[in-house]
Design brief:
Length: 314
Amino acid sequence: MDPQYLTITYKILPVILLIAGGKLLDQFDFLSSGTVEGVKKIVVNIGLPALLFTAFSSVRFQPKYLAVFAFMFGLSTALFFLGKLTVRLFNLESRVLPFLITGFEAGMLGYPIFQATFGKSELFRFAIVDFGQVTFVFLVLVPMLIRMSQEGRGEESSIKLFLKSPPVIGILFGLLFGTLGVFDGVSEGEFLNVILTTLNYLGALVVPLICIVIGYELQFNPNGLKKAVATTATRIVIAGLLALFLGELFFVRVLGFGHTFVLAFATMLILPPPFVTPIFLDARNEEEKQFVLNTLSVHTIATLLAYVPLMILL
């Protein structure tokens, strides 16, 4: 077997085992739903921002990062309209399909698998790729979901959701501190090093806890499972084609970045739709919500299965 295949497999295998362990805990009702929600809050609001802050604290801002932001925002928008076009062309009765063709779950799945594969020192590259699409999710996708569900959940949903997002805050402040060189040359005996060490400890919580939570929340309902599999297959095919034809062209030839950016881009594309999608759906439409939940679960498994071959191919 190809040594490179084995290397990447061994790096991603602990993530898969932790997710499987989370599912095992679910089978034995080891944790209550309230405990799982509490763990998610710790990870998303404390651990992940700390991880992203430290990853960016040594990174200098480059104007080319704005091009990545615009590219990912535009690509996410184009994928949404591709979903709309698919519904029209095939006369599909699905309001939510366009919302499942675009957006990527970077926070709960992308960061753990990218860090496990390439290390924390490369994580900022994935975060730069993520920033444009997460902006699209909070400023465009979520408000449209709310409007579609007619829940009237308030006008603050777009800008405020984005600015209050802890991972976004972690990225912005980390990039600011890195550009200003706040932590440059910090020695072991300085207070700033104590702060960095504390943040590193918090960031270390992210991968194991997120993976356990993902495994715990994996749910498959036989009703509508075929539709979820078809949606996942569509996304995976689109992801593979975009990664092959756009990754090297845009990130290496146009912007002059290293190949790791291409791998970060491919990792992003193969991820499931955002896990927040069902939260903003009309709770009264059970069939619609179950379709979304099935798609998220099926796609999570598909991501883990397709990730290693895609990384080898690229």
